[in-house]
Design goal:
CATH topology of the largest domain in chain B: Rossmann fold
Number of helices of chain A: 11
Strand order of the largest sheet of chain B: 6-7-8-3-9-10
CATH superfamily of the largest domain in chain B: P-loop containing nucleotide triphosphate hydrolases
Number of domains of chain A: 1
Largest interface: A-B, 18 and 22 residues
Shape of chain A: globular
Helix content of chain A: over 70%
CATH architecture of chain A: Orthogonal Bundle
Number of helices of chain B: 10
Structural class of chain B: alpha/beta
Number of strands of chain B: 10
Shape of chain B: globular
CATH architecture of the largest domain in chain B: 3-Layer(aba) Sandwich
Helix content of chain B: 25-40%
Number of domains of chain B: 2
Radius of gyration of chain A: 19 Å
Strand order of the largest sheet of chain A: 1-4
Order of helices and strands of chain A: HHHHEEEHHHHEHHH
Radius of gyration of chain B: 17 Å
Order of helices and strands of chain B: EEEHEEHEHHHHEHEHEEHH
Oligomer: heterodimer
Strand content of chain A: under 5%
Distance between the termini of chain B: 34 Å
Strand content of chain B: 25-35%
């Protein structure tokens, strides 16, 4: 294995790490605020790809407009899921909303199968993004660089949102104590709506980059990326944005490097990922950055 | 300013409040005393809209606020300091105070009030960038009160501020409550520490198993034989 090849894999690993990280942040944000594992998150990810697909084929939007349109629709989808499936159960035992989340996941998968069809569809590949750049001897696809740049921008924006705005302050207050937050005049419903909108938009952004890399979309495409991102969130410590990002990186790197260096074991990729989860939980039950 | 008429609250089959009536005049300190489970906290929660009243009515400045949302009630300048402090341990002292001012939009006013609460509680200023969870119990109680003051309330309701604090800190705390009162706030104080509460209060009500059994000025209740036996250790 040459040095340049390694750097190429490294760039791919980083890009994939960002993709998983952004999805993992969606899990972590929602869990942090409402203490709910949103099992439908992987399917929200899948829906975003179909929104792009239909934006282009049905409405003949240019690809970039279709991307923006999909992010917007996905945010709306996340908000509606919360309103329909989680809000009515907010005061119920936690197991109820967990069941509701799993049900929502099945509903979306089967809705997509019936309405969009179960066969794989080709995701549009904009010519511009398919260009290959030669940096010295390293060959990197433009889409890899765009993934990294857009993800960093999304992370900076998220950081600003959570730590510098009033809405972020409300989210952080809510994550600890609903009743007291309410007593301070925080609008709990609006803050939760906002949290779902942010989490779902991040899922949409990462879904688009995922589909640009693996351009087949189908109703169950969200299942494994969803599980891996959820694993990333747990490895990093649920509730921690930094942790979700770190977990995402670890999983992105393992996914790419395993295929690159030990191609014989590539089929066991998910086994390695879940093994890492077991190890982290054995030594740090709250995850790398989690609080007890 | 606040008038509660025949308020009833049930938790399932349990009748927590069986119809209580009391008044808080503008500019006064009124206290509700009573033992555990008498319904003191429930009364405050019902006023704030955190629990629903089954019957009865609550008026604020003559307007009915029964069963309105907590948000609406906070916007009418009623703020509660919850039992057990309930500060946000993951937020800094400054952020905790900003959460208190959440509904306010007057940036200058917020700044001024922050200076004011730092004057009341100088120790908070020293810890301005520390996480709330790292403060001592007494400091957390001060932060809880300061946070409530940041909403610029007309009516401040305190739920057992002395709970779990060392006597010397309780004394300090009641001094500050007196000071806040002198600066024009109306205060509704709930306490198990009946002696400290009645000493500072203009008027007091004694609550027992969801009913008001006695009321009078702070001094009258301090001298009352029944109160002395039940709450002041004879």
């Amino acid at each position: 294995m040459s040095w340049t090849l390694f750097l190429q894999h490294l760039a791919n690993g980083i890009a994939l790490g960002f993709v998983f990280g952004l999805v993992a942040i969606g899990y972590t944000l929602v869990y942090g605020v409402v203490k709910l594992v949103n099992f439908a998150h992987g399917d929200i990810f899948m829906m975003a790809c179909f929104f792009v697909y239909y934006g282009i084929t049905l409405f003949s939007f240019p690809w970039w407009l279709s991307f923006v349109f999909a992010v917007f629709l996905t945010a709306l989808l996340g908000i509606s899921i919360e309103k329909v499936a989680y809000k009515p159960l907010r005061d119920a035992p936690r197991i109820s909303s967990l069941c509701s989340a799993i049900g929502m996941s099945f509903l979306l998968e089967n809705f997509a199968t019936v309405v969009f069809g179960g066969r794989q569809k080709a995701f549009y590949q904009p010519q511009v993004l398919n260009k290959t750049l030669n940096i010295g001897e390293i060959r990197i696809q433009l889409v890899t660089i765009v993934t990294i740049v857009v993800s960093i921008a999304a992370l900076l924006f998220l950081n600003y949102l959570v730590y510098k705005t009033k809405m972020g302050l409300a989210m952080r207050a809510l994550s600890h104590d609903f009743d007291t937050a309410r007593l301070m005049g925080i609008n709990v419903d609006r803050t939760i709506t906002f949290t779902f909108a942010v989490g779902s938009s991040l899922a949409a952004i990462s879904a688009i980059f995922w589909a640009l890399r693996y351009p087949q979309i189908w109703p169950f495409m969200g299942v494994f990326p969803g599980w891996r991102a959820f694993t990333a969130a747990i490895i990093g410590g649920v509730g921690s944005i930094k942790g979700a990002m770190t977990g995402g990186f670890l999983i992105g790197m393992i996914s790419i490097m395993l295929v690159a260096f030990l191609p014989d074991l590539a089929g066991y990729r998910d086994a390695f990922i879940f093994m890492m989860l077991v190890f982290v939980l054995l030594f740090r039950p709250t995850g790398l950055f989690g609080e007890a | 300013m606040l008038e509660v008429k025949d308020l009833q609250v049930n938790y399932g089959a349990i009748r927590a409040l069986k119809g209580i009536s009391f008044k808080v005049e503008r500019g006064s300190i009124v206290t509700l005393i009573g033992s555990n489970g008498a319904g003191k906290t429930t009364t405050l929660k019902a006023i704030c809209g955190l629990v629903k009243a089954k019957a009865g009515r609550i008026f604020l400045n003559g307007e009915e606020i029964t069963n309105k949302s907590t948000n609406e009630i906070v916007s009418r300048k009623v703020t509660m300091v919850p039992e057990g402090r309930r500060i946000f341990p993951n937020l800094t002292v400054q952020e905790n105070l900003l959460v208190g001012a959440f509904q306010r939009k007057d940036k200058d006013g917020i700044k001024q009030d922050m200076e004011w609460v730092f004057e009341l509680f100088p120790r908070l200023k020293e810890r301005i960038n520390q996480k709330g969870g790292t403060l001592s119990g007494g400091e957390q109680q001060m932060l809880a009160i300061a946070r409530a003051l940041m909403s610029k309330p007309d009516l401040l309701m305190l739920d057992e501020p002395s709970l779990g604090l060392a006597p010397i800190i309780v004394e300090e705390l009641f001094q500050v409550i007196g000071q806040i009162h002198q600066e024009g706030k109306t205060i509704l104080l709930i306490e198990q520490n009946a002696y400290a509460a009645l000493n500072i209060a203009d008027y007091g009500y004694v609550l027992e198993t969801g009913q008001i059994v006695l009321h009078g000025t702070g001094k009258e209740l301090l001298d009352n034989e029944k109160v002395r036996q039940a709450y002041l250790g004879g």
